[in-house]
Amino acid sequence: MSELVQYLITGVGGGCAFALVGSGLVAIYRVTRVVNFAQGGFAVIAALTASTLLASGLPHGLAEGLAVAVGALTGLLVGLVAIGKPGTPPGAALIVTLGLGVFAYAVEVLVWGDQPRSFPGVPGAVEVFGARFQAHYLLIIGATLAVFAGMGLLFTRTDVGRALSACASNPYAAKVVGISVTRMGLVSFAIGGALGGLAGVLVTPIQLVTFDYDVTLIVGGLVRPALTLAGGLLLGVAQALVAGYGNAAYQMEVALVLMLAVMIWQAARKPIAQEEPA
Amino acid sequence: MRSRVVRWAPGVVVAAGTLALPPLLESGHLSVYILLGLAAMVTIGLSLLMGYAGQVSLGQASFYAIGGYTAGLLSVHSFPPVLGLLAAPVAAALFALLVGVPLLRLRGHHLAFATLATQLILLSLVGQADWAGGAIGLQGIPRLSVGGYEFAEDISYAYLTWAAVALTLVVAHNVVASRSGRGLRALATSETAAAASGVPVGGYRLAVFALSAAFAGLAGGIYAFYLGYIAPGSFPVLLSIEYVVMAVVGGLGTLWGALVGATAIVLLIQVLNTVGTQPGMPSYAPSVLSYAVYGLLLVVVVLFLPHGIVPAMQRRMTQTLTVGKR
Predict the structure, then answer these.
(1) Which residue of B has its CA nearest to A96?
(2) How many folded domains does chain B comprise?
(3) d(Cα A14, Cα A239) in Å, to the nearest integer?
(4) Among all residues of chain A, which has the CA nearest to that of B247?
(5) How large is the average pLDDT for residues B297-324?
(6) What distance in Å separates residue B103's CA from the closest CA in chain A?
(7) Domain range for residue B177?
(8) Which of A42, B160, B291, B326, by CA, is between 20 and 30 Å from B41?
């Protein structure tokens, strides 16, 4: 029982990171129709920035905040390249972000070397129902809930959020009422970068920053907001359970197969809804 | 008449050049030449898939791997090597059909993610399969022999490879020129319109997926015999991305574009390797350089040369020709 609780909590913690990266992807996708293959790179860059800032003596909190800002800036830059040139179709922008993701990897290795890094998170351990786990997991879960609530407020209660939603549902009509669709697209890229960066900063203390963010890339299968949180959490828990009860070597396969299953199931449910370029 | 000469001349020149080159190259360059031919075969298939069927595959190296492992495993277990070579494209195509049925329900970026995921799963399964050599790889693959003739020298592999390239070009050209090819082009433009005009959308997409996999599988088979050793590490995700870069740079949906793109990228990789292995460079320099250049190249070509090198050159040429006539 206590084992199960422990796996569940560590799984939810890991799943929160998936959900954060995924929600950044969703924000970008809904506004610009671009699937951002560089999303995993935001997390890595922010995490590495945080490790450097902390090592140079900045206090906790400030360093992480700055790192998230760097993530947002990176997102903005990627957005500028991907959608800044007028008339770039989303399909081409997808390949552009793929190129930028590959390029970002080169920059990361150039700046930070090719050794994995980490930094300490919230110290101490917590015991719930006889299960011990690092207190840092609570921070991850709490931060994710706060971010998702904040995103909900942003999209429904603020002008920027409403403009973003308008671009998402009908770019033409948004243009007609005077919203700059490109600028909103860039805003969404910055938000996506910040969310990806947050995920990277939060998760690094419990697992090393590796450059292998292939799995988070796969989260891209979930481009519907409601599914992102649920899917991310499910992914994290399934991974933790497999690692705990089965063979840790199969952790990645489980995540990938799960993602494939969800994507195919989604496609099977609405087979005809294909978007033709206008 | 003149237009026919103009159309066929480049093909004849290229064919003559490929045949004349191998004896002139030294051994290091010859191996680059062979790998270039193999990459061109995969890229031709991918260009067909991306340009005509409108499907992005980020897992093309997995079919290359399947071909290599099929040929390698069969010949290691003392089947005749030529059987292994023939089985390689068949196995890759069968695998594509198998995964294609569920995956091709997905479109655009979903398919790209899914093919990438398939490759990651395949690589890690192969890495844990002891019967396939596991992570260490499959060693001691014999040289290819047909009848009594053994392909012992690099130069024989060069001719074999480029014969296979010619075969893929002919097959791909005939597919494109056929009635089904027209259906495919319609499919790439608008799936709904093609389906409404009676093009069997699902079947055609699956067929092109399998065909592109067969090309990659054949290339993988030759690769296995040529090197005599394959491992999961021989088929990284970067290789799949590399094929996408080659296809995009050369020009999607043009068969010559695949050839030009593969040549450009392979030569570029050689230059980068030379630069990256200079004394004084850190050990990760070659990989960092190639990642950076792939990334930049992909971005620049997609943004500023969206149809690729070959279509851009063709347009330039027809422009000068028509201007000259006036």
Answers:
(1) B299
(2) 1
(3) 9
(4) A95
(5) 76
(6) 7
(7) 25-236
(8) B291
Tens-place pLDDT, residues B40-51: 999 999 998 888
Cβ A220–B295 below 8 Å, yes or no? no
B145-146 and B149-150 beta bridge pairing? antiparallel
Write the residue in A92, A249, A256 that is nearest to B120 by C-beta.
A256
Mean pLDDT for back-to-back runs of 10 residues, chain A (278 residues): 76 80 82 81 86 84 88 91 79 82 83 72 66 76 88 85 85 86 89 89 70 48 62 75 69 72 70 45
Cβ pair A217:B103 closer than 8 A: no
CA distance A189 to B250: 30
Chain A closest CA to B88's CA: distance in Å?
25
What string of H, E and C letters represents the secondary structure of chain A?
CHHHHHHHHHHHHHHHHHHHHHHHHHHHHHHHCCCCCCHHHHHHHHHHHHHHHHHCCCCCCHHHHHHHHHHHHHHHHHHHHHHCCCCCCHHHHHHHHHHHHHHHHHHHHHHHCCCCECCCCCCCEEEECCEEEECHHHHHHHHHHHHHHHHHHHHHHCHHHHHHHHHHHCHHHHHHCCCCHHHHHHHHHHHHHHHHHHHHHHHCCCCCECCCCHHHHHHHHCCCHHHHHHHHHHHHHHHHHHHHHCCHHHHHHHHHHHHHHHHHHHHHHCCCCCCCCC
Helix/strand/coil for B151: coil
Q: Name the phi and psi angles at B231, rounded to 5.
A: -145, 160
Residue B302 with chain A: CB contacts under 8 Å: 92, 95-96, 99
Percent of chain B scored above 90 by pLDDT? 17
CA distance A262 to chain B (A): 11
CA torsion, points B268, B270, B271, B276, in degrees to nearest 10?
120
CA proximity to A219, closest of A46, A29, A13, A75: A29
How many whole angstroms separate alpha carbon A243 and alpha carbon A250?
Answer: 7
Q: Are B172 and B44 within 8 A, CB to CB?
A: yes
Three-class SS of A70-115: HHHHHHHHHHHHHHCCCCCCHHHHHHHHHHHHHHHHHHHHHHHCCC
CB contacts, 8 Å: B125 with chain A: 253
Q: B302–A99: do the CB atoms touch at under 8 Å? A: yes
8 Å CB contact between B220 and B63: yes
* Beta-carbon separation of B291 and A110 below 8 A: no
Residue B76 domain-assigned (yes or no): yes
Q: Is B128 among the domain residues?
A: yes
The shortest CB-CB distance from B120 to any of A35, A95, A214 is to: A214
Residue in chain A lying closest to B114 (CA) = A260
The reported pLDDT for the residue numbered A129 is 65
Least Cα separation, residue A47 to chain B (angstroms) = 19
Residue B301 falls inside a structural domain: no
pLDDT of residue B63: 94
Go through the domains of chain A in sequence order and give each one's CATH number: 2-269 (1.10.3470)
